[in-house]
Design brief:
By secondary structure, this protein is of the alpha/beta class. The protein is about 40% helix and about 15% strand. The chain is elongated and about 60 Å long. Bound molecules: 3-phosphoglyceric acid. The site of 3-phosphoglyceric acid has 11 residues, from loops.
Length: about 300
Amino acid sequence: MAKVLIATEKPFAPAAVNSIKEVFDNAGYELVLLEKYTEKSDLLKAVEDIDAMIIRSDKATKEVLDAAKNLKIVVRAGAGYDNIDLDAATANNVVAMNTPGQNSNAVAELALGMMVLSARGGYNGKPGTELKGKTLGIHAYGNVGKLVAEIAKGFGMKIYAFDPFINKEDIEKDGVTVVESAEELYSTCQYVSLHIPANEKTRKSINYNLLSMMPKGGTLVNTARKEVIDEDGLVKLMEARPDFKYLSDIAPDCKDTIVEKFEGRYFFTPKKMGAQTAEANINAGVAAANQIVNFLEKGDTTYKVN
Ligand code: 3PG
């Protein structure tokens, strides 16, 4: 009987855990839960005898993968897999997967939610502004970027996108104007919503120069990863531009400086909240469970990332 661990420092909604359990019950697998753990040692102990593992932003480091002697597959229930050491997974003969698209709507709704919150000054009773007619730049037009565009259209925003990996025609079909460079996107748009992954090429790539191109009242919306921001550049820019705002799903490392110096010009979630809805948890969790069963039973490696 295969043994599967759900290791979630930030737990799934209970309904999602029930739905995941149903998938494994039907397959005749044993399910073990490790939720809200605070010590790495708890994770290291929990992985000792498991065959498969579902994680969220939990870190599947070399140490964890080395300790999981029977592990055959780890599925990140979500999009970004920068929390899995892919080389260590491959070295340990472990297949790593993600569940692309399954939590995208929740993230897209949060991006727009943060924009409305900011435009209305955090609902502070003073006159705010509207999103209608404003320019929105989508930086990377993947599953989330596409949905942000769709929702923003409903708000009457003018939408632009930059994504060198997607056919121009496929983006334009959505009524979105394609620009040729990040520089063009940032200099055109009052709001920029970030959807790039965190990797060697993108780390700290959103820097002072790029951000300084944004028009007056520029607002950067980050539901991607904090690592893609050059935080020194961000602070320098916020110092130079009292009109600039930064909204982020999870606080940057320089949170204290921003909180101290730039009152009213930031919003940070206390934990990564983009995908934290019951619907997204069910979609991503059940997809992860099915991917595990399909891999262990049929060798299906769809969505393998290593
Ligand atoms: C993702 O990459 O899918 C999101 O960042 C969601 O992360 P979470 O599962 O930790 O909420």
